[in-house]
Design goal:
Length: 349
C-alpha cells in the first residue's frame, strides 16, 4: 500500500531553521512520479534560499532539495520514462518527459508548496522530466545522489561548457562538491596543470586526491601570482569558479590567458551582488560565460558519468564528506556555510 503522508523539511521563514513537518501526499497528476528517497544532496543554492539571499521568497512555506536518489513507488498517467521499482536520480536539470512545474502538499499548518522537484522528504512527488533511470547496479544510491547537481554542474563545466582537452591548463576556484567534480573531470580529460584554489586546507587535500596537480590556499598565498608562476605568466586556458563569491569570480576571470582563455562561472552569488570586469580584458581575448548545470543533457550525461564511475575514470563518490538525517538537516546547512564539508548528504532512510 502506498503511503499517504511523509516527513519533510519545510522552509517556513527565510533566515530561520527548516522545520520538520508531516505532510499529506497529493494524488499524482499526469506526468508526476512518486519516489521513495534514499539520499538528497545539499548545495549552496539551497543555502542561499534558506538564509534569504535569493531575494523575496513568494512561495513560503515550501519544501526544498533539488538533487538525490530514490526508488519509484508509483507513476501518474502519461509517464513512460520510468517504472515502479526502478532506481532513479532526481535532478533540477530538465530532461525528457512531462514537465509538471509544481505541486502542493497539505499539512496541519496549511498548504506547503513545491516546485517540480523536492528531495528533503522521505517520499516526494516529482515531475517526470526531473528523473533519470539509474540502472548501473555498481553505483550505490549514496553516490548516485551526487549525479543530481554536483557532478553534472562541475564535470559539465569542464566537458560540455569549456570542452577541456588533454594538456589544457585548468584552475578551479572553490573545491566543494561542484569544484571537486570539475577537478575530477579535468583529471579524466588529462588536463595539466590542474590548480585548485580554496581557503580550507581539508578541501585542498580532497582536491589533490581528486587529481589537482597544484593547490593554493588563498588565505596564505595570492592565487593570481601563484597561477602566473605555474603557467609561465600565461594564465590558464580554463578557470571554473565554484565558490559563488564576487571577489572569487573576478579572480577566476583574471587568471585566464589572454587570447582565448575561458572563465566559467558555476557558483551562485547572493541576490543583488555583482562583479566588476575591465572591458579591455575582453578586447584582449579573455572570455567569460555562465554555466547552467554544466550544459548537461541528463538522459545522455548522467548514465555516461555513472559508467565512468564504475570504470574508475570519474570516482565522484569521494565528493560526499558528511551525511545527516532529515532531523538534522539544519546542521548540514550550518556545516556547509562554515566550509566544513565538500558535499553534504541527507540520509532519508
Amino acid at each position: 500500500m502506498l503511503p499517504t503522508t511523509t516527513r519533510a523539511a519545510v522552509l517556513v521563514e527565510t533566515g530561520q531553521p527548516l522545520q520538520i513537518w508531516d505532510v499529506r501526499l497529493p494524488d499524482l497528476k499526469p506526468g508526476q512520479v512518486l519516489v521513495e528517497m534514499d539520499y538528497a544532496g545539499v548545495c549552496h543554492t539551497q543555502l542561499h534560499e534558506v538564509r534569504g539571499r535569493r531575494g523575496v521568497d513568494k512561495f513560503l512555506p515550501h519544501v526544498l532539495g533539488h538533487e538525490g536518489a530514490g526508488l519509484v513507488m508509483a507513476v501518474g498517467a502519461d509517464v513512460s520514462k520510468v517504472a515502479v521499482g526502478q532506481r532513479v536520480v532526481l535532478t533540477w536539470i530538465k530532461g525528457s518527459g512531462k514537465d509538471v512545474p509544481s505541486t502542493v502538499y497539505e499539512s496541519d499548518f496549511g498548504p506547503v508548496n513545491s516546485g517540480a522537484i523536492a528531495t528533503f522528504m522521505a517520499v516526494t512527488v516529482v515531475s517526470e522530466n526531473r528523473l533519470v533511470a539509474m540502472d548501473e547496479a555498481a553505483l550505490s544510491q549514496r553516490d548516485a545522489a551526487l549525479l543530481g547537481c554536483a557532478v553534472p554542474t562541475g564535470a559539465g563545466a569542464i566537458v560540455n561548457t569549456a570542452k577541456v582537452s588533454k594538456g589544457d591548463s585548468v584552475a578551479v576556484f572553490g573545491v566543494g562538491g561542484i569544484g571537486l567534480s570539475a577537478v575530477l573531470a579535468a583529471a579524466m580529460r588529462e588536463a595539466a596543470p590542474i590548480i585548485a584554489v580554496d581557503v580550507v586546507d581539508a578541501k585542498l587535500t580532497a582536491a589533490k586526491a581528486a587529481g589537482a596537480t597544484h593547490t593554493i590556499n588563498a588565505l596564505r598565498e595570492n592565487p593570481l601570482e601563484v597561477i602566473q608562476s605555474i603557467t609561465d605568466a600565461k594564465g590558464v586556458d580554463t578557470a571554473v569558479e565554484a565558490a559563488g563569491k564576487p571577489e572569487t569570480m573576478e579572480a577566476a576571470y583574471a587568471s585566464v590567458a589572454y587570447g582565448g582563455g575561458l572563465c566559467v562561472l558555476a557558483g551562485n552569488v547572493a541576490y543583488g551582488e555583482t562583479i566588476t570586469l575591465d572591458p579591455y580584458d575582453l578586447i584582449r581575448g579573455r572570455r567569460i560565460v555562465g554555466t547552467w548545470g554544466g550544459e548537461t543533457v541528463p538522459d545522455r550525461d548522467l548514465p555516461a558519468y555513472a559508467q565512468m564511475y564504475v570504470k574508475g575514470r570519474l570516482p565522484f563518490g569521494q565528493l560526499a564528506s558528511h551525511e545527516w538525517s532529515l532531523d538534522d538537516v539544519n546542521l548540514a546547512f550550518d556545516a556547509l556555510e562554515a566550509g566544513q564539508v565538500t558535499r553534504a548528504l541527507i540520509r532519508l532512510k
